[in-house]
Every structure is written in C-alpha cells, then in structure tokens.
Amino acid sequence: MSGPLRKYKEWDEEDMQQALKSIKEERKAIYSVAKEYNLPQSTLDDRYHERHSEKVGRPTKLTPEDEEALVKYSMYMATKGFPLTSGVMKALAKEVDALSSKERNQKPHFGGKMPGKRWLMGFRRRHPEISLRSPDSLDRARAAMSNAKIVGDHFLKVGELLEENNLQNRPHQIYNADETGMALDAKKSRVIVPTASKRAPSIRSGGRDHISVMSCVSAAGGVVPPMIVFNKALPSGKFSDGGPPGALYASSESGYINKELFEQWYFKIFLPHCHKERPILLVLDQHGSHLSLKVLMSAMEEKIVIYGLPPHTSHFTQPLDVTVFSVLKTKWATTLEALQAVDSRFQARKTTFPRIFASVQDQVFNADKIKAGFKKTGIFPFNEDAIDSVWTDMSTSEGPSAQEGSSGESGEQSSAERSNSETCPSCGHAPNPLIGTLVPEHLQDILRPVNSTTAKQTRRRKLSARVMTHEDIVEELRKKEEDERTKKAKAEERKKKAELTRLQKEAKAKQREDKKRKREMENGDEEKEKELGKEEEEKEEEEKEMDAQKEEEKEQSVECQRDGSKRRRVKKRDSCYDYDY
C-alpha cells in the first residue's frame, strides 16, 4: 500500500522573481527569503543556481521554431480562406517532425505515425492565439471579392454619397433592403435520444414550400413593412390574418422576387413608407431583379439615390445580412421547434406562415440590432475601418506576403507574387515566398502558400459598387430594354416566318398526299372495273350453262313422256344425282 500523497507548497511566479531579486541584490540567505515569501526552499535554491529548465514537464515533440512556423502558417491560411482542419494540422506536424528530425540526424519524435488528439490539445494550449471552430462556408466568388481594393472602393463611393447628399447625420434617410429565404421545415437542433440509438428520426415541422421575405430597415432603427413572396401561388383562404401590419403578398414560380415584384415592392411598400424628407439613400445588392428602368426613373424623380453594393460582398457590407437575418433564421427555427413541442400535430404551412413570421419579426427587428448592422458595415456612422480585416485579406488573386498593400493603385506585383511566379532554374519549382516571414527555410517544401494563379478570365464584365440611379446606368438600361424589344420583335418575326414555312410545307405535303391518294383511287377503280367485268362474264357463262342444262332436262322429259318409261334417281360418287331410265 502506497504512503500518503506528498503536499506541494503553492507559490506565485511573481513572488519567486521578487525572492531571487532579494537574494541577488540584498545578499540575503536563501532560507530566510524562502520563509519570507512562503516559497519552497529547495525550489528557490534550484532557481537561484539555475538547476532547472524554464518550462516544467517533458520537452515538446516539435521544436519551438517548428511550432511557431505551424502557428503562423495556420493563421496565414485562415486569412486566405483555407483554414486548416485538425487532420491537416496533425499531418503537417508529422511531415515537419520527419523533415526536422532528418536534418538533425534523429529519429522522428512521432515515430512516423500521425500525432493524436492529446498532442493537438497540448499544441492549442501552448498557442492560445489559434482556436478550433466550425468554418463558415464561402463560395469562391465571394472569396474573390473579399479584398482590400474592393472594400476601399466601396467606402470611397459611400463616403462621397453621404457627403454630396448631406446625410452624415440623417440616419432616418438611409435605408437598406434585402431578400432572404425562409424554410417551412427549419433546421433541427440537436436532440436527446437513448444512448444506444444510432439514428434520431424527427418528423418534419413543415413542408418543402419555399417562401422569401423582402425586408427594409433604416439606419435610425425603423422598419418598413415586408413583402412576402410565395412559390407557385398564393395560399387559399384568409392567410394574411395576423400577418405583419401593412405587408404585401405576392407569388412567383421560384418563390423569389423578380423584376415585376420588385417594382410592386418599390411603388406599393417603399415609396409610401419611407421618410418624407429628401434625399433618400437606399442600399441594395445588384441582383438583376433590382435593375428596373421604371424604378430607377421614378427614384431619380423622387430624389432617391439607389446604391448597389459590390457583388458577392453582402455577407460583410449589407447591414441586414450582418446582424438581422442570421438571428431571424435562428429565432424562426426555435419558434417552429417550440410550436411542435407544444403540439405534435403542428405543421408550418403557407397559410400559417404570415402569422408566425409576424411574431418572430417583432422579436428580432428591434432598433438596437438594426443600428448595429449599419455600424458594423461602416455605413452609419461612416467608418472605413468598421469591416473586419478577415474580409479584406482573403482574396487569393494576390500573391501571399507578410504585408499586403490595400490600395492596389501602383499596379506592381508584390515581392511574394513575383517570387511565386518565377521558377528555380535548377529544380524547376517556384520558390516559397513565405520563407523568412512565416516559414523557416527547411520547411519550404511542406508549408506552401496559397496558389496565386488566377482562373481563366471570362468575357463577363465584373461589376463593382455603383450608384444605380446614375444617368449612365439608366441610359444603359434603356438601351438594354430597347435591344431586348428589338430582339423580341426579331424573334417574333423569325417565329412567324418559321410558322409560315411550316404551314407551306404542310400544304405541299398535303397536296402530295392528295395526288397520291387520287392516283391510288384511279388505279383502284380500273382494277375494280376489270374485276366486275370478269364477274359479269363468269355470271353470264354460268347462266348459259344453267340454260343449257334446263334445255337438256326438258328434252329428256319430253322423250320419257313419249315412250312411257319411268326414270329413277341414281347417286353418283361425286355426291350429285343422275337419272337412269
């Protein structure tokens, strides 16, 4: 049986440093200083005579230099939109260990095996500047637009608009409108099931119908009534009862807003409910449905400036997307779960959507949350530095470097970009531009930068942020609509010509068919006449034979009457009868 556990005296590092200072400067005895600061005498003695290591415990598998390189590399990859997973980090650690051990003529500390969970936990504890979290999915189009040049151009235009229209201190005249999709079958939270269960089936809270909501808010915290768009058709019955006050209801084939519905929203919702003071700044994304000539011409007359955000940047430039919609969808899902928990027969339908959405909107669309959205996006109060740097450094279209320029006006490649485009004449590989800033030279083949080669350019023009109510854009839209009308007229003309050609072909085909049928009928009549002639001839011959037979029988009967003999019928082999006198 083991003895009692030894109790160790607890002490603070600050007290230890003060004690060491007293010994060195005041030349006090170790025993008295240990008693004064309540420190273990043996520990103080070891620290004074430097008989210890700075870190307690076993040495790490990787050297501090290698660990620091891994940390910097992981942070670099995260800023470029390619954060490392736990598996990738462990695989890189294995490769780094193998390469570093080979250079030191040592065996790999991991023994050629993959590091485990405990190593990763220790690695994270030693480096609190990195953490493990669920990634936010981001498509490549959004990643390509997440760079300092796009954001800088955006804020330059917003600042000019606010200054030109004197809106720096008028939040009630600044609006943001955006559309978001709502699912009747909301995403489920994690549920409690028996431990032995391998699956957790859950009955849906609603159907698969899609509904979208066009929301609009002001920088002062005001809320404009929404437009609710159903897919296919509007629900039957009094579905709008209990819905958001003043809401407009419509339907489209997809369940999303289109140009015609956007025009309805602008004229029936936005114009009547926006502030009466002018000018008004309306911030939108540049979706095709928002490019309506009718709306833009009306906005210019009404002194409403419509500003289109840079494409694929709404996740960090649009106030509604940044603070409101994420909370809205979470609250929507929890509300459906709560309703289903109260009544297991509950099912969200198109007819009940307005009533449930009104309740959720009242809880989510509050002034503080709306104002926070405008503040985080830097629109109001205007702040060019409001957007998180993670959205300005992500684009992989630029070469990686320790410090990337944000202006992009010089047009010159960065040193990292130039070095990444050149190849080594001896080995044919591009040198690693991260060497010296993020990665040690001996790890250049493992910790590689993000590939800076851009995809093949398409002919489609890439748009930036723009004022959509500008005369040039209106003229462009007018010309576009004229071109569309011309194309439509030409298409109709081609359609008519094709229809006429088709009718002509059908008429010719019918004529050919009629001629063919006529020939067949003529040939058929001749054959019928021939057949009828043959039948008549055969009939005449039969009649002649019958007449001849009758004459013969008549003559025989006359002869029998003359000689008085009797005649009797005799059956022949061919089943006919003859008479024997």
From TrEMBL:
The residues the entry assigns to the signal sequence are: none
Q: Where is this region: Disordered?
A: 393-436, 477-581
Q: Which UniProt keywords apply?
A: DNA-binding
Q: Which organism is it from?
A: Branchiostoma floridae (Florida lancelet)
Report domain HTH CENPB-type positions.
54-133
Instruction: Enumerate composition-biased segments (Low complexity).
Output: 397-417
Q: Which InterPro entries match?
A: CenT-Element_Derived, DDE_SF_endonuclease_dom, Homeodomain-like_sf, HTH_CenpB_DNA-bd_dom
Q: Could you name the domain of life of the organism this protein comes from?
A: Eukaryota
Q: Which named protein is this?
A: Tigger transposable element-derived protein 2-like
Q: Which residues form a coiled coil?
A: none
Q: What molecular function terms (GO) are annotated for this protein? A: DNA binding
- Name the residue ranges with Basic and acidic residues bias: 477-533, 546-564
**GO terms under cellular component:** nucleus
The record's annotation in Pfam families points to: DDE_1 (PF03184), HTH_Tnp_Tc5 (PF03221)
Q: List where Acidic residues composition bias occurs.
A: 534-545
